[in-house]
Amino acid sequence: MEKEALDFLMEQGIEPKERQLKIGGQNYIINKDGEPVLVEPVIYKAKEPIRLNTLSGLVDYIKSSNLDYNTDHAYLHVVDEKTVELKSDLKEDRERELLAVATAIVPEFKFNSYMDIESFNIALQSQFVKTDDRDILLKVVGNLKEDNVRSTGDDGISQAVTIKSGIATAENIKVPNPVILAPYRTFVEVEQPESKFIFRMQSGPRGAIFEGDGGLWRVEAIKTIAKYLEEQLKGTRVQLLA
Question: 26: which residues sit within 8 A by CB, 6+ positions away?
């Protein structure tokens, strides 16, 4: 309909601007039948957003581009602990253009699932920040033998096991519960959030960590990401949403 209306006006030698009107904030052109025809605005958007895996890369992109896209402001939305999106102002079609996305690469630890002690030991060392409670767990699982499981004591909250403390000696140790650990769960540029976990053992021996804070760590992670971006992007035309 828009093309037909424009063609008609051109045939009549009438400039489109002479037969334009605005209704409800939108542009219309009167066609040959005297009816208003909506003229849809041409909206130019990127086919694909820039995809990044670090906050520092996102910051560098924003600073280097100097907001070279057609927008007065841009908005950074911290979607969750692993995702940050850079969006434009509202376009004429009332939508925002997705300009860039940063997605954190984090190791996948099998929470709430028992695993053999060797795998558990490796995961604690490679996927968790060094903390006092992590070192206690490493001491336990690193010195636990299969026959030690028979001497495991359990009061329903804490477990006590006998571990090797020398060539021919043994030591009873009580494993604290809950334990405070900081797995790698968000962008590497920010401090990893600590939270409470329940550590349990089974015969085999096998160990497992169960999340014990109801997901509150995600809120802390989002706040930490927002604070980092706010500090790094001072003086830019980017508004932060978290």
Answer: 38, 39
* CB proximity list for 87: less than 8 A, separation 6 or greater: 74, 75, 77, 96, 97, 98, 99
CA-angle at 89, arms to 83 and 93, nearest 5°: 110
pLDDT at 133 over 90: yes
Q: Is this structure's pTM higher than 0.90? A: no
**Confidence label for 120 from pLDDT (cuts 50, 70 and 90):** very high
Let me know the angle formed at the C-alpha of 29 by 26 and 30, rounded to the nearest 5 degrees: 130
Return the DSSP state at 112: T
- Cα torsion 163, 166, 169, 172: sign: negative
Cα–Cα distance between 123 and 120 in angstroms, integer? 5
- 197-217 residue pLDDT tens: 999 887 778 889 999 888 899
Copy the structure tokens of residue 54.
Answer: 């670090």
Write the burial class of residue 62 (CB in 10 Å: 0-12 exposed, 13-18 middle, 19+ buried). buried
Q: Which two structure tokens, joined as six digits, stand for 167?
A: 């060539």
Average pLDDT score over the chain: 78
